[in-house]
Amino acid sequence: MLTEHLALAHCEVIIKFYQEDPEKAIELIMLTKYGFKESDIPLDKLLHFNQE
Predict the structure, then answer these.
(1) Which long-range contacts (CB under 8 A, 24 or more apart) does 17-24 make?
(2) Are 18 and 25 spatial neighbours (Cβ–Cβ below 8 Å)?
(3) Which one is predicted more confidently, 19 or 13?
(4) 30 close to 37: Cβ distance less than 8 angstroms
(5) Angstrom distance (rounded) from CA 27 to CA 41
(6) pLDDT for res 50
(7) What is the distance between the alpha carbons of residues 18 and 31, in angstroms, rounded to a whole number?
(8) Which residue, 50, 2, 49, 18, is CA-closest to 27?
(9) Where are the alpha helices (DSSP H) in 1-52?
(10) In degrees, to the nearest 5, what angle opens at C-alpha 17 toward C-alphas 15 and 19?
């Protein structure tokens, strides 16, 4: 059901499942992909994000 959408019919979809604490999984992804942890991002760099 994750990939049933018609627009995805001709796309390659990669789904990764992590069996650990979500915060640890996010931290691991951030470190391996970007080289820093979420806690290393200064809050002033995130002020432009909102929920609109």
Answers:
(1) none
(2) yes
(3) 19
(4) yes
(5) 12
(6) 67
(7) 15
(8) 18
(9) 22-34
(10) 175
